[in-house]
Amino acid sequence: MTRPRLVTGARLRYDEVREEHQLLVPEGVVRLNATAAEVLELCDGERSLDEIVGALSARYDGSDLRDDVHGLVAGLSQKGLVVDDAG
Amino acid sequence: MTPARPSTLIAELSYQCPLHCPYCSNPLDIGGGKYRSELETDHWIRTFSQARALGVLQLALTGGEPMLRRDLVELCAGARDAGLYSSLITAGTLFTRERAEALKSAGLDHVQISIQSPNAEENDRIAGNKSFEKKLAAARLVKELGFPLTINCVLHRQNLDRIEEVLDLALDLGAQRLELANTQYYGWAVANQEALMPSRDQLRRGEEAVQRFRERVGPKVDVLWVLPDYYEELPKPCMGGWGRTAMVVAPNGDVWPCQAAATLPGLEFANVREHPLEWIWSESDAFARFRGTDWMQEPCRTCPIGHQEVDFGGCRCQALRLTGDAAATDPVCRFSAHHDRIVSARESAQTDEFVYRTMKRPVRT
Fold first, then answer.
1. Which residues of A touch B112 (CB under 8 A)?
2. How far apart are CA A61 and CA B303, in angstroms?
3. What is the C-alpha separation between B209 and B215, in angstroms, rounded?
4. Do residues B165 and A24 make contact, with C-beta atoms less than 8 angstroms apart?
5. How do strand B222-226 and strand A4-6 relate by DSSP bridges?
6. Could you report the per-residue pLDDT of B152-208, keeping only the tens digit for each?
7. How far apart (Å, rounded) are the C-alpha atoms in residues B102 and B190?
8. Contact A73/A36 with Cβ under 8 angstroms?
9. Cα–Cα distance between B82 and B46 in angstroms, integer?
């Protein structure tokens, strides 16, 4: 996974009714915590995984978020919700 | 007690359909006067925004054939404005480039196309309509316009042996999801049970083919495979539990807890022309009747394996049909006193003749 993006048709949003971040996909929903939503916002098929980690670490005073970001992206990629735009 | 928020609204826009599938989930009395007076555009759009306020996330635009609604583009725009994720559930035969592009611009999110078989001739025989080539063209157009594509194939004894071809076709078409829906026996499928019920061997081979495909292809195609009720020993939580996750709006505006709920005697269904959706969900008779666990009888009431809130007693329509009591335990359950009726139905397949779905004549079961 080098340049992750959301699978075709996936929509990221904050739901005012349920007060939660969501990834809406065909006939399904993944409920997200705020950090996961921030990671997915950066999964645009342009940034590399390292750039995503870098951008978030900068936001959070240099904390090491590498494992968290890799874990989240790998999990969603196994479900087919995040795909690689590198190839 | 305030009920949980629903997540899905199934909008049956019209029961008109060019296909005649013998397992259609629509009621048998679609030809009667009851559903002829379809909701107006603004009824639907108001219903969509009420659904979103209630917490609904997913909207299924279905039918019949939803493409037969002339205002479909407007309805999609209404769904987008309401903030719903919209799926068009279509046979694909009327999915022309001009309309498809208009639907895309109006914010339709996802398209699901049904095929009746991966073999053209067999597809057209099951559908009762020459439609296979149009379906393939529609699926290609869905991809070309950048929609996510789901292929749906309802499985039964007359097409299950082609499951490898179904899987390969979905892969070739670039489907992101493949729904392999083993026939559920309500609606028209009841009239055709003997022509549709698969054998245990067919199901076993089907399941193995799905497993091999998943290992070979990975998450690129999400394959949904659900064993039919009749080969289970424990029931499924029908609709995710009665009045718990989903609501169905019929073409005339009646709101049901499931597509077959109108077959249950003594339930009063409220209509979106007369009541707000929020009231229908939380207060109306039909939704309250089998919600939760208080209505349960034995053996559910003291479920030996504590599954009351796992399967919610299973399917009410199946309970009624096989036991005569809609409040009985679904006989799919091995603890039901009527489980033998499920077991004997497994061996009943004996014909290839279909009773085709039609709006033209009454059908008896």
1. 26
2. 53
3. 10
4. no
5. unpaired
6. 999 999 999 999 999 999 999 999 999 999 998 888 998 999 899 998 899 999 999
7. 38
8. no
9. 9
Which of B318, B287, B314 minimizes the C-alpha distance to B186? B318
Contacts of B219 in chain A (CB under 8 A): 77-80
C-alpha separations of B128 from B20, B133, B180, B198 in Å: 5, 14, 20, 20
CA distance B10 to B255: 10
Segments of chain A with pLDDT less than 50:
87
- Flag whether residue A18 sits within 8 Å of chain B, measured between CB atoms: yes
Tokens of B216: 């070979």
Alpha-helical (H) ranges within chain B are: 41-54, 72-82, 97-105, 120-127, 132-144, 163-173, 188-191, 193-196, 200-217, 277-283, 285-289, 308-311, 316-323, 339-345
> What pTM does this model have?
0.94
Q: Within 13 Å, how many C-alpha atoms sit on residue B195's CB side?
A: 15
Question: How far is Cα A62 from Cα B184, in angstroms, rounded to an integer?
Answer: 55
Per-residue pLDDT reduced to its tens digit, B284-321: 999 999 999 999 999 999 999 999 999 999 999 999 99
B152: number of Cβ within 10 Å: 20
Is this complex's ipTM strictly greater than 0.85? yes
pLDDT digits (tens, 9 = 90+) for B113-165: 999 999 999 999 999 999 999 999 999 999 999 999 999 999 999 999 999 99
Helices B132-144, B120-127: crossing angle, 10 deg rounding: 100
Three-state secondary-structure class, residue B122? helix
Query: Which residue of A9, A13, A15 is in closest CB contact with B148?
Result: A9
User: Mutation test of the interface with chain B: which of A6, A20, A27, choosing the one with the most B Cβ atoms within 10 A?
Assistant: A27
Q: Strands B8-12 and B58-62, how do they pair?
A: parallel
Contact B73, B102 (CB under 8 A): yes
Encoded amino acid at B270, one letter = A
What is the maximum span of chain B, computed from C-alpha positions, in angstroms?
Answer: 57
d(CA B64, CA B47): 19
Q: Which residue has the tokens 């299924």?
A: B60
| pLDDT given for residue B76 in this prediction | 98
Q: Do B109 and A9 touch (CB under 8 A)?
A: yes
Strands B8-12 and B246-249: parallel
